[in-house]
């Protein structure tokens, strides 16, 4: 992918311009499968491997106050030791960037695996349950600015 997103689901977006806001001048960009709220891309750059999410601007989840809450919560649980990808701030220290095409969030890329519904091995389901327990414990203890809908 040459770094552009086009199609019925997205305006013409030059992802390299977005990455420049994070100080990333050179990268290989690949679309990631799935995504109901956003489109996601793997970014392989000299600085490391990242996930770039484009939030569709017409969805409720893309409002700045909602994204700020989500990013601050993700950063807090990461700081608490939960295996959540670290949010990468832009050059100005913001947790997401807004452009005319919508909002973008950059985070560390974490390798993972998806299983078809009903086909997750029991050991994986048990490990996932343990991590969800850690997540809920961390969420009960962190202080993030209250989100108002």
In terms of topology, how is this protein built?
Elements: E1 4-5, E2 13-14, H1 15-20, E3 28-32, E4 38-45, E5 48-55, H2 64-79, E6 97-99, E7 102-108, H3 122-141
In brief:
This protein is α+β, with helices and mostly antiparallel strands and 149 residues long. It has helices at residues 15-20, 64-79, 122-141; strands at 4-5, 13-14, 28-32, 38-45, 48-55, 97-99, 102-108.
DSSP strand (E) fraction?
15-25%
Radius of gyration: 16 Å
Question: Termini separation (Å)?
Answer: 37 Å
Low-confidence stretches: none
Number of strands: 7
Structural class determined from secondary elements: alpha+beta
Number of helices: 3
The neighbouring-strand order within the major sheet is 3-4-5-7-6
Helix content: 25-40%
| Biggest sheet architecture | 5 strands, antiparallel
Shape field: globular
Give helix and strand order, one letter per element, not per position.
EEHEEEHEEH
Overall residue-averaged pLDDT value: 86
